[in-house]
# Entry
Amino acid sequence: MLPIHQRLAELWTINLRRDLSQKELEEMEHCLRQNAARVWEVIKLKNLSEAAYIANDVDWQHDVCAQIERLKESNNANNIL
# Structure
């Protein structure tokens, strides 16, 4: 879990009790933008991996899979326990 996901959960919970302040709304928008960017990056890499597979380009596919693994590792490094 990334810190942005934790903050989104906090803001959502706050919003259950009261309206968010302008600063909190801006922070939520920032978190949502960062989340969307990360999701699109993962989708792009998965599509590139599939393209590499179809092209039978093993080196390219390994490179793309390594990038996906680095993203997963960065998620794991930010786990909240």
User: Anything to note?
Assistant: The chain has one domain: 3-77. Helices lie at 3-17, 22-54, 58-77. The radius of gyration is 17 Å. The first helix runs from residue 3 to 17.
